[in-house]
Amino acid sequence: MGIQFKDVSYSYKGLRVDYDAIGNINLEIEPQGEFIAIVGQTGSGKSTLVQHMNALLLPSSGNVVVFGQNLPPKKKEKINFLRQKVGLVFQFPEYQLFEETILKDIMFGPKNFKSSEAEATEKAKRAAAKVGIGESLYSQSPFRISGGQMRRVAIAGILAMEPEILVLDEPTRGLDPKGRTDLMEIFNSIHKNEGKTIILISHDMDLVSQYAKRVIVLDEGKIVFDGKKEDLFEHPKFLSFHLDLPTPLKILKHLEKEVGIPYMPKYDFQSLLQYLKEVSYE
Ligand SMILES: Nc1ncnc2c1ncn2[C@@H]1O[C@H](COP(=O)(O)OP(=O)(O)OP(=O)(O)O)[C@@H](O)[C@H]1O
Ligand SMILES: [Mg+2]
């Protein structure tokens, strides 16, 4: 098992009262081959939940087990092991860039996890290539590139640690449509080519519909759905999840109602177009 939550609750400590952010969470996530989206309204506990996956937060009650390691571990070194295995990309990760050059910034993680200079350089270069950061940028300052490039550099910094599970907290937020698609394609190819489990927090239901296989829906800190995306969008209680339907499904429902084209779920625009071509030739 990659990640296991057993009846996990977490409360933020307040001055007068504590705030219960997530409650009674039970989850099992395979170390390989999953593409999971975590969705839910703002404040529903998504970021709080994923910060438990590499011990940035420790449960107020319940247990988290990551790659066989019960949290919190007794020895501090074990936390490093965990952070290497589960790579967490925060919201707006570019705010955490700080080195003089792009390559040094990407090397920071592997060096911190005891890679030699040469090894860290190799890992950083491989990670940079994955996110499309070319050699000509290596020696530039990470603060003199575009916002989209900064985000890629920050993501490369996590990839360079060669995590087995990649957790992404709204990685496409604030990017233009092309930047969004490009980044999602990078994550998808890591998932497909390397078989890595990807956990993606997103408010963008079109991206969730196109890429995720499994969706976890949070509502006020509780899991209200955990299953296949195909089952989520047809769920009888879908409206109560306060989620938007993905655009291709909205279009298909509309076409059935207004034009009589039989509803057939399609999860991305390409499959939608393909289906419409097929029905128009019949
Ligand atoms: N450091 C904190 N101290 C106190 N309360 C917090 C803290 N961080 C988050 N919370 C509260 O915990 C709840 C869950 O927050 P969380 O950030 O996990 O939500 P989220 O689903 O990630 O939201 P968003 O979609 O806006 O990123 C919210 O009500 C939030 O106000
Ligand atoms: Mg959040």
Automatic annotation (TrEMBL):
Documented EC number(s): 7.-.-.-
First and last residue of the signal peptide: none
Subunit (UniProt): Forms a stable energy-coupling factor (ECF) transporter complex composed of 2 membrane-embedded substrate-binding proteins (S component), 2 ATP-binding proteins (A component) and 2 transmembrane proteins (T component).
Organism, as annotated: Peloplasma aerotolerans
Similarity section: Belongs to the ABC transporter superfamily. Energy-coupling factor EcfA family.
Subcellular location: Cell membrane
SMART domains named among the record's database cross-references: AAA (SM00382)
GO MF term set: ATP binding; ATP hydrolysis activity; ATPase-coupled transmembrane transporter activity
GO cellular component, one term: ATP-binding cassette (ABC) transporter complex
Name by which UniProt lists this protein: Energy-coupling factor transporter ATP-binding protein EcfA2
Reported function: ATP-binding (A) component of a common energy-coupling factor (ECF) ABC-transporter complex.
Membrane topology: Peripheral membrane protein
Occurrences of domain ABC transporter (ranges): 3-245
Keyword field contains Cell membrane: yes
Keywords, comma-separated and alphabetical: ATP-binding, Cell membrane, Membrane, Nucleotide-binding, Translocase, Transport
InterPro entries: AAA+_ATPase, ABC_transporter-like_ATP-bd, ABC_transporter-like_CS, ABC_transpr_CbiO/EcfA_su, ECF_ABC_transporter_ATP-bd, EcfA2, P-loop_NTPase
